[in-house]
Design brief:
Helix 3 packs antiparallel against helix 4 (130-146). Residues 74-87 have low confidence and may be disordered. The radius of gyration is 25 Å and the shape is elongated. It has six helices and three strands; from the N terminus they run H-H-E-E-E-H-H-H-H. The longest helix has 35 residues, at 170-204. The protein is 56% helix and 11% strand. The protein is mostly helical.
């Protein structure tokens, strides 16, 4: 008769997810200092831009054409007053780098907590299929590594270099983000299956 007795929670089956998840929470928590500092950095301020429109001398709006864009100062809710410009002629240009800072921390924290949950499930449900437990564990780590990557690179690139633009890496980062999201979805799905298998095996013993 096969002995199903195993050591409690081995590193290969869940400890790594718990440890990595907690380390990521601590790492991105420490980044809060730099994230909050963005309010004092010019490259993270919201800007304003004015569109110069050529009406072609007609009343038909479909004939209008934007012929120039004028860069304005930092956007202020109360309006921007120039000598010849009405404040409503300016449009708000959001600071994508600052949004990326909050997004990276939010995504990293959630995916780290998902890793902790997956790690606990696959580590404790020793009666479940070993291959499912291993797959869930590694997929959770892949999701944690890939999903916050785009926003992390966007924020730190802009933080270290005010002229940095994340547009060039977008075609690569977006597919990696999708893969990371799909990996975490599958990891959570497998973790549910593992939990149910383990609970059923325990009930039958």
């Amino acid at each position: 008769m096969k002995n199903n007795k195993e050591d409690p929670m081995t590193l290969a089956m869940g400890n790594k997810n718990v440890v990595v998840g907690l380390l990521v929470v601590m790492l991105y928590l420490s980044m809060s200092f730099f994230i909050e500092r963005t309010s004092a950095l010019h490259q993270f301020h919201e800007k304003a831009a004015a569109a110069v429109v050529d009406t072609k001398g007609t009343a038909d709006l479909l004939d209008d054409q934007v012929v120039d864009m004028k860069r304005g100062p930092a956007y202020r809710t109360g309006g921007i007053f120039f000598t010849n410009h009405y404040p409503n002629s300016y449009v708000r240009v959001f600071a994508s780098g600052r949004d990326a800072a909050y997004n990276m921390r939010w995504y990293a924290w959630w995916f780290a907590l998902f890793n902790v949950a997956v790690g606990l499930i696959v580590g404790l449900q020793k009666q479940a299929d070993t291959r499912l437990r291993s797959a869930a564990s590694w997929l959770a780590l892949i999701g944690l590594a890939l999903f916050p990557l785009r926003d992390t690179l966007s924020f730190w690139g802009r933080y270290l270099d005010p002229k940095y633009s994340a547009g060039s890496i977008g075609p690569v980062m977006y597919p990696l983000m999708w893969i990371g999201g799909a990996a975490m979805f599958l990891a959570l799905l497998l973790a549910i299956v593992v939990f149910m298998q383990g609970a059923r095996q325990a009930a039958n013993r």
